[in-house]
Task: structure prediction
Amino acid sequence: MSKSKRLRALSETEALAVTRNIRVSPRKLNLVVALIRNKPVSQAVALLTFSKRRIAQQVKKTLESAIANAENNHQLNVDRLVVSVADVGKSIVMRRFHARGRGRSARIEKFFSHLKIVVAEQAVQSDVASSEQKVA
Result:
């Protein structure tokens, strides 16, 4: 006997990529991820490519994985994809100890993060909207 098949949590026009246990604190990762939220994927990839932050390259890999999932697994149009959700979560905390004076010690915490990126296909602009642009 096998488990029953789990229903898909996302809609048909969305694709997901997850990266777990990234060696950066969630606060720092969220600064980079905030740059790409609600942006078209082409613009988001360009922003991450030229970002000076070290973690931007790993975020770019996750975004490219979400784009590839959308194209290959869900047959979505890459030109109309937008970063709809970009979540940063807290993961494990590695604790180390640092020797201090007089026999004391200080705790050093090394934070890890989870990253989830969902890309969604935008609806096609209606003919009414395009005709309004021609008139204006």
